[in-house]
Every structure is written in structure tokens, then in C-alpha cells.
Amino acid sequence: MLCCMPGVAFVPALLVSWSSAAFIISYVIAVLAGHVEPLVPYISDTGTKPPESGVFGFMINISALLAAITMYIRYLLIEKQNETSHFVRSSCNMFTLCIGLMGCTGMGIVATFQELAVPSVHDIGALVAFGSGVVYITLQSIISYKSCPRWNTYFVCHIRMAISVISCVAFIPMIVFASKISMTKIDWTPGEKVKSY
């Protein structure tokens, strides 16, 4: 199986490195072009205008593909471990994979439909990406606990669950505040009135 081949651990490492580079490169281009302020812009703001939008879209789509590969490897790994331990139902593992792949699809939507070009589609993609991501990591945390102590340490499980809890807590205000605003442009001039929808 693919998950038992030596060296597949580079895929998650590549995912993290590539995704970080996508955010950093598009941020640098957007700041240098004067499209965003350098102090903590939204990630989507750094991928709205050309040329950074092309870089952002391309790199985030590659990130979505790498995330899907990583999730599939994790699925195969759990299936292989489950052959001897029977710690989780195969249907639960498949369901978790499907939720994760939904999140990857959401990432692809975010990358393809820029924030200001098609805001409703972009927002739906972001909701699917972040929402599915939170559910995926929570389910993976539960699976990790079920596989203890043979396949995981409790310390690793506690770290995974802490990340899941932080993600859940962060997701709630994201939804609340995102529903309160409607962005129609990034650049504002002093004295300009803001439309509230």
C-alpha cells in the first residue's frame, strides 16, 4: 500500500511548506504592488488583484491537491492499522476522508473565485473549506484516541484534540463576523461611506 512505502512522510511536509509559501509569496507581491496594507491583511485580500491573484490561485490549488493526497495517505494508514486492531469502523474512516476532500474542494473554490470577483462563491468555498477542515481534524482526533495506545501516544492525541478545540473556537467568530460584513472593495479612501448590507 502507498501508506507503507518509505518516504511518504514528505507529502504532509510538502503541503505545509507549499501552503506557507503560497500565502507568503502572494502577500509579498500584494504589498509590493500596493494592493494591500502590510499590517495583517485577510489571506483572500492578498490574492484578489493581478498579478498576485494568479500566483495565489495556482499555489492554493496545488495545496488543495497536496491536502487531498495527504488525507488519502492517512485514510490508507488507518485502514492498514485497522486490519490488526479493529479500532474504528471502515465506514467512519471513509466518512472522515470524504469530509476532508470536501474541504479540499472548498480550497479549490477559494483559489479559483477571487474574493471581489465572485464574492458569494468565494465565501461558500471558504465556509466549506474551513468548516470541513474543523470537522475533519476533530474526527481525526477521535480516531487517534481510539487507536491508543498501540498506534498513538496519548500526548499526540491530546495535542491533536487541542488543535481541534482551538479550530472550533476560532470557527465560530469567523462565521459571526463574516456574516456581519459584505466586502465590495479592498481600497477605501478617507471619508468614503461604507455600504452596509
Automatic annotation (TrEMBL):
Gene name of the record: Dram1
Q: Which PANTHER family match?
A: DNA DAMAGE-REGULATED AUTOPHAGY MODULATOR PROTEIN 1, FASTING-INDUCIBLE INTEGRAL MEMBRANE PROTEIN TM6P1-RELATED
Protein name (database record):
DRAM1 protein
UniProt KW keywords? Membrane, Transmembrane, Transmembrane helix
A single cellular component GO annotation: lysosome
Q: Quote the InterPro entries the UniProt record gives.
A: CWH43_N, DRAM/TMEM150_Autophagy_Mod
Where does the source fall among the domains of life? Eukaryota
- Where in this chain does the record put each CWH43-like N-terminal domain? 8-182
**Family according to the record:** Belongs to the DRAM/TMEM150 family.
Topology term for the membrane: Multi-pass membrane protein
Q: Name one GO biological process term.
A: regulation of autophagy
